[in-house]
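Q: Structure tokens for this one, please.
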Amino acid sequence: MRKYIGTAALVSLILFSCKEDSAPKQVEETVEEIAGLVLEKDGITLSTNTLATAFDDARLTLIAPAENDASFSDSTLFRFGVDNYDLAVNTSDPLSGQCANSGKGQHIHFILNNEPYSAHYNAEFKKQLPAGNNVLLAFLSRSYHMSVKSKDAYVLAEFNAGDNMDEFDQSAPHMFYSRPKGAYVGDNAKKVMLDFYLINTDLKDRGYLVRASINGVSFDLDTWQPFFIEGLQEGENTITLELLDSEGELVPSPYNPVERTISVKYTPESI
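A: Here is the predicted structure, written as tokens:
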């Protein structure tokens, strides 16, 4: 069942920040209201009625290493440039208290070969690259792990560590998995974010869709936005994402489809 409970809009929130020995200061922040779409099937609900801070001018660039630089060690230094976006600060919007939120603040999601991401709260860090051709997607993330989807907020690059150069077409459409990830306990299990990152498509431009299957229950998503899952079963849950073309066929990509397993515990005592 598909329901709409709102429309997309830009609104302003007046937030208050307090400094020691000073009067409260009004800070105006622009937030993006995502269309209130609700999908329900077999006890599982996906919804998008949220407010998220808009970071239209946020920019992420890769400074080092150079793309396709083959001189790698076991510990490769990555250095990013971050503009119009603050790492290691909490995202100040209504959503930060509604789902799993990192106490360390905003960060970079670092996804190598579409494996589960690592979160980085500084713009410089070291990573080990496996042998072969490595595809990196890095993007800016809010403190509650929602990706920033503005046009300059990501980096897509390739690095070769060895002689194996598997082909990856950076100009083709691709989908990368981001959330959910890991274990969700207590209040964090009530609403679990589903988020993915699209390259060279926003779905609507090509008539594409993403089919999200949650424990075998499938939802066809035709808009690129995060969804919140409610009604997950206690214990293990399987999430499968497929990027489909206008004919319902899998879009060619080494990372399509993708499947992940997460765990849910609604109370600390439950297993």
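A few notes: The chain has no helices and 21 strands. Residues 4-34 have pLDDT under 50 and may be disordered.
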